[in-house]
């Protein structure tokens, strides 16, 4: 697959916390899949092994609020007390060059983008079961017991948002390769559409045709 396209795609990858969205993106990078990987801005504290500008753009609350005020974010949300948002300029610049863009957001963020850019490709990464997801969150050990309970309850609600998405991919334990291949197949199929999705980035907003 070529790295550029006359009609680049905006791919929105979402799903509940702990389902493996980061692992999927890392798998795509290892395969040298030709696309631009959007980096989300957040006020969340940086975790061990995370790199600023690679995993997230780690910013202060004041900096984030300034980005909101200037309209620099395609979408933003308060998630578990931390602010997350997708920088608009990064996506626009990549797609202006004909590059497909994939952005990782939570379900709330995906809903916001759906209203603004309905022609994006929305993919929901799902666990085999809620029991499986709960075990993953417990084993991750990056949240306190209270935060863990909040995330589990939120995940249950997010699983009811499937109708908002175009595709669902189940990420089985030790099956990350299969999930990546399925998403790759979705992108390939989208490239074969008779009527391709067309997305335009104006100077201060995103509009879909």
Question: Key terms for this structure?
Answer:
four-stranded mixed β-sheet, 7 helices, 11 strands, globular, five-stranded parallel β-sheet, single chain, 209 residues, alpha/beta, Rossmann fold
Brief characterization of the structure:
With 209 residues, the chain is α/β, with parallel strands linked by helices.
Distance between the termini: 24 Å
CATH third-level topology of the domain at 10-38 and 98-208: Rossmann fold
Residue ranges: pLDDT <50 for 5 or more in a row?
202-209
Beta strand count: 11
Query: Average pLDDT across residues?
Result: 85
Element-by-element helix/strand order: EHEEEHEEHEHEHHEHEE
Strand proportion: 15-25%
Helical region count?
A: 7
Second CATH tier, the architecture of the domain at 10-38 and 98-208: 3-Layer(aba) Sandwich
Q: CATH homologous superfamily of the domain at 10-38 and 98-208?
A: P-loop containing nucleotide triphosphate hydrolases
Largest sheet: 5 strands, parallel
Based on CA inertia axes, which overall geometry fits? globular
Helix content: 25-40%
- Gyration radius over CA: 17 Å
Q: Just give the CATH class of the domain at 10-38 and 98-208.
A: Alpha Beta
Supply the helix-strand structural class: alpha/beta
What oligomeric state do the depicted chains represent?
A: single chain
Q: What order do the strands of the largest sheet run in, or round the barrel if closed? A: 2-7-1-8-9
